[in-house]
Amino acid sequence: MAAPTTAHKVLSWGVDGNPRPLGRATGDPRRPGLVGGLPDMLVSVAAAGHSLAVDGAGALWSWGRNDSAGGGGGGSAPLAASGQLGAPRVGPAAVPAKMAGTGAGGLRFVAVAAGRYHSIGLTSDGAVHTWGLNDHFQLGRQAHNESGAQCDGGAGCACADVAAGRVAGLPSVKAIAAGRYNSLAVDERGRVWTWGLDSCGLAEDGRRIGQPPRLVGGGLGGEVVALAAGYRHWLALTACGRGPLGLCIQVALTARLPGFGRGEPWGPAVALAGGEHTLVVATLGGQVVAWGIGAPEPALLEGAPEGMRAVTVSGAHQHFLAIYEGGAARSEPGSSASSTMQGGADELVSLKKVPAEVRAAAPDVFAGLAPLQPGLRSPCFHNTSGHLRCLPYFSIIGVSKCGTTDLHHKLLALPSVVRTANKGPHFWDEVHSLQSYLENFDGVAAAAAADPCAIASDASSNTFSYAIIGLRGVANTSVPLPVVHRAAQPRTRLILLLREPAERMHSAFWYYGCMHGLYQRHGLSAAGFHAFAQEEVAIMRSCLQESSLVACATREWGAAQQLIKGVYVLPMVAWLAAYPREQLLILTLEELRQDAEGVLAHAAAFLDLAPTKAQLAAAARVRANRGHNMRSGVPRCGGARDPMWEQTAALLRGFYAPFNAQLADLLGDLRYTWRAA
């Protein structure tokens, strides 16, 4: 057994005959001992008959057996060097050795999985690489026979590869798993791909074995967030802990395993592990449930540490390991050839993937986060004290005075969306501690115990705009806000509300004037707004005569902030450079006012929510901020606002027109010219 610690070191224990798979030459093999010869910063560990580890530089380290004796080869003679260590050596490796061509200047791995005689690695670009024995096509590609000729693999074929080779035909992958003769990957959309000897998931063409990766047909009822592989079977867990799926033992396929999920006997599942003929699940309630050949019904694992909750389980060669709150571990006899999902994109912060300069831009953030708790829709994790902390599942990142508060309250009316202590904590554009930010989402952490689908949002309306200024209250930072944001929350979903810029600026003038007493020297009137607009336009036009738009927006933010906030194309470029377009939903206030129910349906689909028509209609009727935008003692704030003069509108729309055109071109949508306005 090999397991990582919070200090990013590896402990091993178990059978240590010949070969010596523990990677240490001293100490009682029955008790955990430190594996020597490894770097301090380890980010992924996997074990079967051999063990693999990835360090913070992306280099792969391996030790243990390197042959295929004991069942490999499908009838052919076993290979003395089947290559699962990534080296041509004959005989086992008693201590860890670095795999050639990995780390700086080579393949940079972020996760690994160990099968019985083969290995899988996931690189930082979402590609899957395999090496080792290919007797059942588990490499997903051609390998080489002992004479060096290319071969496809298959039973009776001595086909293997020492060098890592990329598996073709896969989209960008976020997690991997390996069984005895099979391999699996989960893509960024949460879909499962399988190759090798797989008795469980039927491919779309009905085959159970094949060289190229095959997308599992029929879907699994939701985004896969955890995966375990065994002898020839696997088990998947979808978002919200809605039950393990795809179970098959002795080639028996079960579409959904009963008993797991909200309102079911065992409750939601949060972690999985697989063995040769057995499976283990950790539940949201902290129980460990096991079953398999000889014990066909799930049963509670007895002897758990009293008063402690299991937070995850893992499988290794003939072992299962349960980790409890506070770091207590318990191992149980299991069966051979098992692997739990090793993930990249869903492991909340991964020092393995975050460049040093990005970590340096927000060191407290990256030091305070940890790998995600599987089975929950929200991105939650256990901190060093064992408490569950959560980040927002989605963020309404702006823009202020474009309807963000109204949309926020409408979405709160949908099922599973939880109210937070502060709608807009402004963590990314002001100076706040990570602790206070996480405490804002304690409500969703508590709600997740009963509803694994519970989610919450950060509706800080200045997050989008501040991308052109700096990060967390500090201007002119070397690393842009969106880059740090995505490094900390790679799977978050972003909602952006825009509005015709002149109307947005008019609304901001009255809101900040009445709520915060600003702009009093202009006077809160149509004439005052005209003077305010003239002043900010003059400041920007003067600057633009000698400097770039980016330089002027940064330099004049304090003097012309409300005008600059309407130049949406500037921060849009920065956000789209950091996030894939599919993670950003762009809406307009005009659309929200015209068809609130339709906009909510669009947003719900984007968030993977499934409200009924009645729930959407009720949410659309929610109104926010009515009667709450007045400040006592401020003249002109007790009644209706003065409409904007036509000459003011013409001035502002003339200024914004070229930038709106750039935005429309960037997004490929003429709606963002607002020409009808």
TrEMBL record:
The Sulfotransferase domain extends over 396-616
Annotated segments matching region Disordered: 1-33
Question: Molecular function terms in GO for this entry?
Answer: N-acetylgalactosamine 4-sulfate 6-O-sulfotransferase activity
Coiled-coil segments: none
PROSITE patterns from the entry? RCC1_2, RCC1_3
Residue spans of the RCC repeats: 58-125, 126-189, 190-240
Q: Which GO terms describe its biological process?
A: hexose biosynthetic process
What's the name of the protein?
Answer: Sulfotransferase domain-containing protein
Say which species the protein is native to.
Answer: Elliptochloris bilobata
